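Fig. S4 source data, part A: sequence.
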Amino acid sequence: MIVPGDLNHVSSLTASFAGASAVYIIAPGTENRTALTLNGVAAAKAAAVPYLLVLSVSTADDTSTVFGRQFNEVEAGVKESGLPYTLFRLPLFTDNNWGQVDTIRDTGKLYGPADPNKPFSSVAVSDAAEAAAALLANPAAHVNKTYNIAGPAYTHAELAAAFSSSLGKSVEYVQVPYDAARASFIEKGWPAWQVDGLLELFRGIDGGAYTYPTDDFVAITGKQPTSVQAWVEANKQGFIPADLAE
């Protein structure tokens, strides 16, 4: 059943949450998402929701970063609500590679500012969804816990190699200056605050501070998370030129 709700208006959400056995709040990709997410938390408390699952980010403890500040405040608000909760921290999505589908498909190149040989973690969206579903199906086992959900770490050089292997052609990672990367994102219409936050993640990769264990995903789902090679292989048809695709 679909019910209406608006994160801008606590009262509308309170009515929507009434009678729910659990609520999963996913922060929108807007600059005011801290306030919007906390509106959701307030509505859940007003509706006496028995369990709250709230999306956060892997860098929530690092308040020197844009995303860290946003979600550190979210996590504090969740804990202060008094509701039984689980905080669900996610790194970059592996599926963000779709953002470079044109250059990978047409020129055999993918671009980024991070060091090609520094490992980092990401998570497949399907894995994040599976872990969230498992938490919502058995909340009692996960009350007042914080989980980091991540896949096996890899480098951008290994990402390019995964595409090369699955596509049967050479795919190269091209490292670009941070200033050029920022200008490119802005030109594509990304808001400046989000670009700055994303570039902080890439700088974290350069500093060796963006790898996370896979233990939480395994403990929650009983499965191994999707490797980058497996993700590329499963999605390779989208990266093959239309005239060559089967």
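Fig. S4 source data, part B ends here. The longest strand covers residues 52-57.
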